Amino acid sequence: MTALKTEMQEFRPDEVAPTLPVDKVVVIDAMAEVQALKIEAGMNVLDDLTSSFVTRIGKKIEYCQEERIIFDRYDVEDSLKGKIRVKRTKQTPVEYDIHKDMSNNHVSMKDLLSSPKNKETLTHEFGDALINQCNRSQRKIIVVKGTEAKINDGFQLPGDIQEHDHEEADTLIPLHVIDCLRDTTLSEVTVYSPDTDVLILIIDLVANGRVGEFTVVKFVNKTTNQVSLTLSVLSVKQNAEVSMVCTTSLELTGVRNLLASGRRGGYSHTLRYLTTILPYTSSLV
């Protein structure tokens, strides 16, 4: 057994500490976590990379009672988003015959993630591994990959989120936040995502009163793992400034860029809300 797999055993989802809060949920942009992976020394086969992914996710979800890990889709034919992804990479896609025993020798993460076909296979490999690792957990763990959601043993998946036709996690994450908020007693929902689009949509949920009175929604920068925004109904009702930590974070820079761009139309209500509660945006609207 490699040192990496030994480290992975530290994540024991079946063991829930007596003091573990039962009213906190974490929602994670899975592909952002995949993109942060590195093929390090000792990671000889793909299974080692899968273990690294599971360990990485485990560290983010160990202090909550429910987790939702959301992957993008890569199986949409003639996808505009897919064409944009290829254009952004500015390289010829390299396709691999991906399986758990595939050798990592002479394989880079850049090449591995250069092809939509590779990404699609990896989402299933990583997603299935996470579900299998958590099957005996006392915590609810939902993994969304392809067009369906899976849940660990002992829990039932709501019928209206079992399947979907979304291509991107950007739009799925807010929907799962809304689903979580059916439970109005939640004290906290934490979203891990690097995308400004997700940030804007999450702020919009709060601005439109979709969050319970006693629920706090946190948006976390995946790079620094620090809270970038803390939102609550109270801050909306009192017209108060949103609590800020990391005021120079990538997400906040992204909000400035969005406000200054031609993409305002679809976010008009949210931008009015931002102008009201975030003084630093007022000069941009």
Provide keyphrases for this structure.
285 residues, alpha/beta, 8-stranded mixed beta sheet, 11 helices, 8 strands, 14% strand, disordered N terminus, disordered C terminus
What does this structure look like?
The structure is a single chain. This protein has 285 residues and is of the alpha/beta class. The protein has 11 helices and 8 strands. The chain has helices spanning 3-8, 30-35, 46-61, 80-89, 109-112, 116-133, 169-180, 196-207, 233-237, 250-260, 268-277; strands spanning 24-29, 66-70, 140-145, 148-151, 188-192, 216-220, 227-232, 243-244. The protein has an 8-stranded mixed β-sheet, with helices on both faces. Helix 3 packs across helix 6 (116-133) and helix 7 (169-180) runs parallel beside helix 8. Mean pLDDT is 74; it is low at 1-9, 15-19, 234-256 and 258-285.
Main beta-sheet strand count, sense and barrel state: 8 strands, mixed
Distance between the termini: 56 Å
Give the topology string: H per helix, E per strand: HEHHEHHHEEHEHEEHEHH
- Approximate shape: globular
Q: Count the DSSP helices.
A: 11
| Strand segment count | 8
Mean pLDDT: 74
Q: What is the topology, as strand order, of the major beta sheet?
A: 4-3-2-1-5-6-7-8
Instruction: Give helix % range.
Output: 25-40%
Alpha-beta classification: alpha/beta
Strand content: 5-15%
